[in-house]
Amino acid sequence: MAIGGDAGKVIGDGAGDDNIILNPEFDNGLDNWSGSGCKIELHDSLDDGKVVPVNGKYFVAATGRTDTWNGVQQDVTSRLQRKLLYEVAATVRLSCAAAAPSLPCDVRTTLAVQTPDGRQQYISVAKCQASDKEWVQLQGKFLLNSNVAKAGIYIEGPPAGVDLLLDSLVVKHAQKATPAPAPDFQNVEYGANVLQNSDLDDGLNGWFGLGSCTLSVHDGAPRVLPFMARESLSPLGDDDDAPPLNGKHIHVTNRAQTWMGPAQIITDKLALYATYQVSAWVRVGATATTPQNINVAVAVDSQWLNGGQVLARDGRWYEIGGSFRVESKPSSRVMLYVQGPDPGVDLMVAGLQVFAVDRKSRVKHLRKLTDKVRKRDVVVKVTASSSAGAAAAGETEVRVRQVSNSFPLGACIMRTNMDNEDYVDFFTKHFNWAVFGNELKWYWTEPQKGQLNYADADDLLKLCDDHNMCVRGHCIFWEVDNAVQQWVKTLSTDDLTAAVTSRINGLLTRYKGRFRHYDVNNEMLHGSFYQDKLGKEIRAEMFRTAGQLDPDALLFVNDYNVESMCDVRATPEAYIEQITGLQQQGAPVGGVGLQGHVSNPVGPVVRSVLDRLAVLGLPLWFTELDVSSANEHVRADDLEVMLREAYAHPAVDGVVLWGFWELFMSRDDAHLVDAEGEVNEAGKRLLQLKKEWLTRAHGHADGNGEFRFRGYHGAYRVDVVTPAGGKVSQEFTVDKDDSPLVLNITV
Description:
alpha+beta, Jelly Rolls, Immunoglobulin-like, 14 helices, repeat, endo-1,4-beta-xylanase activity
């Protein structure tokens, strides 16, 4: 039943002072509401009483929708404050004629903002799937970085022809939740295999075949632990601590489905939030004629966790390694199983281990490695200007303070963040490199053919220049199909070639010398749009052209999952093969980008990947590092694992975080600073590590007038104070070198 209403009248808030939405449950008809490109109608019921409101007496229907952006809107300009976190909750439903698109469909909450300088922004707040069967909750959060000239909130999203129903809308200042405490790992037995009868000395006791496959025990498997497990179980490098294997393995036959393999129930063996490393030897039978994907999977209720993957190409034994974590109590069971090869292909598994990782035990080992890789011996040699002063050289006091560490540590930034001075302050204080989230990508700089937009990139570059920041150029092209603009996809081969040439020439000519790195063609292990359209030579041609246009920039490959051992498309070996193939075609590949979107990282797994890639002789960078956990303490531990492993490896030349501020990250529960500027446990851990990696030294020169210390690479200040009270200060830099740095100071 439709009820009339005045869409223009402004009235008081009908749902409490904390809700900035006026007339949120339509108690006053359509006051304060309007349609966005469509009509809106007020109802107390629909469909012969089958659809009724759930919160108030009425709901609104957006009808006559001809596009996805059509929906229900309200102006909230005067009721929003910048730098406050708002939470949004809408109750929505759909109504669909028989001829309309099938349900369910996406429904979105969007905040449309116009800044005082005229820039238009569309902030995606929330998205959910809705249908005509029931009301559902659409929930999300947003933050305004800048003042606004105009702001409106919209409920939109379904295809044309689908009516969108809104029962109520609440937008209010979000209350900060109390962070969860650090998990209690007191009873976790690190290094102990949670699997029963993993050595198979008791036959198949504890094991069962998933599906109709057949399990049997045989000899002939490797008798040494896989490398990654050996590294974790012997963190200080003492292989004598690693027990040998007995050579037995499970042989799986009669596999009718890819998911069939050996399994165990481990529900009661796991501690919440503990990180578990997975390690095994695996092999496939002789009937396999193509490379076979083997995966250690963990089923937690209806969720599937990836415990590691490897591609077995022949009859050899392969190491499989990975990790997983359970962060909420399972409602039913947790099952670990090995799966993957094609039906009919036998699967062999030996020495399968699942054990909790003691991350703290590895820190001592990493500190020793870091000392070798990131420090240098320094000799401060004090010389007196007179013979009288020389006699007192041994009493000269020397105070050394490191001002900054030269290791590149950067972060992803976006144009909208520049208007938040708290964000800018944290960024400029704690990072020395930058990368832009979207503003340099082709779909941003030329969303429609010929409509170029470099203003956002220019603004970000100016910010970085003003603070002496080095910047990575991300990215010239993006090989994955869904990252390519629609207008580019419709081009003919000749027109696409011309567009590619125009893009690379325009970008690198405009910014020649401004970007230290370029990701030339992003994610070539996972996509092939340009290669499919323009041939295999196009990738090397992109590198060659970029090298000619900006010869001082290092040109990178850049991809994800390589560091995690969880993706058979992105193994270190596949990456090496791709890079060497490009080099053979004359591509001047100058660096290897590991994106680093990791979950529950394990140090030896990461180190193993870095070691393999280091054979290329190219600098390795983590280019988009982020870690995600709902528990801030666990997130902090994950971040520390990645930063310590990177800093301790000689082939790693830099780390860039893929953001740090809540709501401006690509992953949930990955931020280091909350939306309103409070540094969380992960952010504090970052700052602690930065402090740890600054050297301070204090003492007196010896009888030869020398003061020795070993310090991290970077910028320093030294103060030399004589017994008579004279003082000489000097700034100096400790660069990477095997020979001691001698600093001569005359007092």
